[in-house]
Amino acid sequence: MRDMKRIYQYGFGAIFSLLLSVVGCKSDKEFLTEVPPTFYTVDNAFSTSAQIDQALVAIYSQLRDLWANPSEEGWIFVLRGNGTDMYDVPSIRRGNSFNNYGNINPDNGTFYNAYSTWYQLIAKANLAIYSADLEQIAWSSPEEKAYALAQARFFRAFAFLNLGELFGGVPIVTEVTTQPKYDFARTSRVETYQFVIDELQAIENDLPTTTGEGGRLVRGAAQHMLSRAYLAQGIQLQTDGDAAAAQSAFNQSVANADKVINGGTFSLMKSRFGSRQDEEQGNVYWDLFQENNVNYQDGNTECIWALQIDYAAYRAEDGKSKLPYSRTYGPVFRDGAPAHLTGTLEDVGGRGIAQMIPTMYTRDEIYADKWGDDMRNSDIVFRRTFIGNVASSPYYGQPVPWDVIYNGSSDATTNKANQSLCYPVSCKIATDRYTGLADGENMSNLFRDDYFIRLSETILLRAEAKQRLGDKAGAATDINLLRERAQCGYLVTAADVDDRFNLILDERARELVYEESRWNTLLRMGGTTAVERIRAYAFWPEAKATLTFDYNLWPIPNTVIDTNKDVPLEQNDGWKNR
């Protein structure tokens, strides 16, 4: 997607002509006084509906960059899950760990970047909403205007939902701010979620069921987010002691998920499809992550909303139109197992530099014992077979055993480092068929679209809401929808649904690895869920040693608190005086 074009710009020739016309005719003071022909304000910056749509495209583009992280910003890796139970950093990047709580406090730039970025998106949405009603804007139909407003309000609600899950109650800003303001007041977390719910309900029916253009918002996206917002609100209401209101929220979470799951538009893909369906090596889960297979318009009824990547645009003008996943998420066998595996080709998962790695929990523990027969852990999906490619290796031309990869040294410290650099490769971050090699591209980037919302997550939201309603059998049935599609040899029953929600969290890890924002999930669950799982599953020992306090929200950045000088903003529990 292209960034919104600048509304106006001054050309050098025009300025030079203006200077010639005034030289020698005015005093120095008059000459140096700038008198622009007009000032652009929120009331005259937009003159057509097409410009408002460009403002919306700019938000789509910002979300794409926030998700795909083409610039490889460290704080975005955290936003995507670094520092949780699922992801950590390798030995070569241990200084970038987000698990050493001796270095993590409200001044940490990650918190400010996340907080401010969501508010930047809100500001863009507010401007589009305000401008849509300007008298000079001519819309082709009421439906065109309604859809534009629905997209903008969805984006605003989505941003506040993320803020609520990560930071709790935050100031609700719905107006375009044109003057410095220092008196923002926090709402409660329940109120923040309620704003999200009200916004999404207001625009739900103004979003189309489907679109002809990939990446544009549809009704199912709003219904999915309503399910997520009601679930989050119910958890907070339960924490606040309002059991009746919590039950009502959980019921609404289920009802909105039902609209998506049972509405007739979306369904799990259960048979081979798409651009590589005739290849014997694949399976339907693998198909979900191949080029030209991601969008609903590609025949993928599991896709509810996807970010758009375009290789031609990348080559021509948009260098951020890429998924740098092979580079940023890929292993570094050439450092971790150099005696047996080297290079940066497809056989080792591409040109990985391991900015963020799966923990042992993510890569191995969730598949131990009875979870071995799972399509999501098949070698084509989560590749564990790597053929030795170093001529001097005793495993040259043969699979290198993981015990050799993990524990090939007599030194325990070296082995731990090697384990951090070497790990199975998901089909979500690598491919055996890289685009652009003939044009000089290396095996760093994927050029396929990627999911913001996939139906699997809607099903898992519903399973969690059912469990919180006391319907463990219903939760098990939903989890089995995914297990059956993955051809698991073992389905679950109500007896397997534990009260700590480990079953739900483990299933999310299997199904949504490299897809969900794990911080949002863990913090949304409240209590000590996040800190307990970080202590249990973080790759490096610093987490357990330094995470000596409990928290269930990220801190409000100190910069935000200090700047808001006219109204005190209370710091979240666990972070005060840190």
Offer a few descriptive terms.
two-stranded antiparallel ribbon; mainly alpha; globular; 44% helix; single chain; 578 residues; Serine Threonine Protein Phosphatase 5, Tetratricopeptide repeat; 3 domains; disordered N terminus; signal
Short description:
This is Starch-binding associating with outer membrane. This protein has 23 helices and 6 strands.
- Rg, Cα atoms, Å: 25 Å
Helicity level: 40-55%
Shape: globular
The total number of structural domains is 3
Instruction: Please describe the biggest sheet, giving its number of strands, its sense, and whether it closes into a barrel.
Output: 2 strands, antiparallel
Identify the CATH class of the largest domain: Mainly Alpha
Number of helical stretches of at least 4 residues: 23
Second-tier CATH architecture of the largest domain: Alpha Horseshoe
**Helix/strand structural class:** mainly alpha
Order of neighbouring strands in the sheet with most strands: 1-3
Number of strands: 6
Query: What fold name stands as the CATH topology of the largest domain?
Result: Serine Threonine Protein Phosphatase 5, Tetratricopeptide repeat
Beta percentage is: under 5%
Distance between the termini: 41 Å
Stretches where pLDDT falls below 50 for ≥5 residues?
1-26
- Order of secondary-structure elements: HHHHEHHHHHHEHHHEHEHHEEHHHHHHH
Average pLDDT for all residues: 93
Notes on the protein architecture:
The protein is mostly helical and 578 residues long. It folds into 3 domains: 212 residues, Alpha Horseshoe (Serine Threonine Protein Phosphatase 5, Tetratricopeptide repeat); 148 residues, Serine Threonine Protein Phosphatase 5, Tetratricopeptide repeat (Alpha Horseshoe); 115 residues, no CATH class. It has 23 helices and 6 strands. It has a two-stranded antiparallel sheet. It has a two-stranded antiparallel ribbon with strand order 2-6. A two-stranded antiparallel ribbon has the order 4-5. It is globular and about 75 Å long. The chain starts with 11 loop residues before the first helix and ends in a 15-residue tail after the last helix. Pfam families: SusD-like_3, SusD_RagB.
